[in-house]
Specification:
With 235 residues, this protein is mostly beta strands. The chain contains 5 helices and 16 strands. The chain folds into 2 domains: 103 residues, 2-Layer Sandwich (60s Ribosomal Protein L30, Chain: A), CATH 3.30.1330; 104 residues, Hypothetical protein, similar to alpha- acetolactate decarboxylase, domain 2 (60s Ribosomal Protein L30, Chain: A).
Length: 235
């Protein structure tokens, strides 16, 4: 990881202002995987740190996608609703998206082909990247986590009964990040995408897709700031 500064801090998101070219993350991916599903930071605070990103909600109650400054909650039935500022997140990643690099999609690309096109646009040595793909999707397969009750299971256990949803011939946006594999545990290594339709009524965590036409945009992020809530840090 040569191009990104990795920074850990203890406290809450309201204690630190956003920085240009930074991904702001609430908690670590390892904590979420282990079952730390209690929300600690409000989306009102998180929105000060970015207008673009992914996350989840208190008690793992669905998934979050932020695009164009609008935050939406993706529910287990595949629907989407606006996020209220007071809703809490146990994990989220946001940045102010600029779209520094771009490339068209002029013909069908399956999921593997899409990732290869992104890698060609922003080589692996670019480290942490924010990625947005707007376009028409021939099909897209998604799932969304459902609310859990304490004592919380692990993330893998919580995902066992998830229902997968497939949409065909739909326009919308893939929103997410690519991080180095060796950063897994601090953040989510590899690619992580959420999807929301253009009318902002449906979406989910992306499992597979085919994009028929559209545009890829990528930002190279210079810094990752991870804010550790007191519950995780022991504070």
């Amino acid at each position: 990881m040569t191009g990104t500064c990795w920074d850990l801090a203890v406290g809450t998101a309201r204690h630190r202002a956003a920085a240009d070219g930074e991904v702001f993350q609430v908690a670590t991916a390892a904590a979420l995987v282990a079952g730390a599903f209690r929300g600690e930071v409000s989306y009102g605070d998180i929105s000060r740190h970015g207008d673009f990103g992914v996350g989840t909600f208190d008690c793992l109650d669905g998934e979050m996608v932020a695009v164009d400054g609008e935050f939406h909650q993706l529910h287990s039935d595949g629907t989407a609703t606006p996020v209220r500022p007071e809703q809490l997140a146990p994990f989220a990643m946001v940045t102010f998206f600029r779209g520094e690099l771009s490339a068209p999609v002029n013909g069908p690309l399956d999921h593997r082909g899409l990732l290869a096109r992104i890698d060609g646009l922003a080589p692996a040595e670019a480290d942490l990247c924010a990625v947005r793909v707007d376009g028409r999707f021939g099909w897209i397969r998604m799932r969304t986590v459902s609310r859990q009750e304490p004592p919380f299971p692990t993330l893998a256990e919580a995902c066992v009964d998830e229902v997968e949803v497939e949409r065909t011939d739909v326009t919308g946006s893939l929103v997410g990040f690519r991080a180095p594999d060796q950063s897994d545990g601090i953040t989510i290594g590899g690619y992580h995408f959420h999807f929301i339709t253009d009318d902002r009524t449906a979406g989910g965590h992306v499992l597979d897709c085919r994009v028929d036409s559209g545009e890829i945009r990528v930002d190279h992020e210079g810094d990752l700031h991870v804010q550790l809530p007191p519950e995780i840090s022991g504070g």
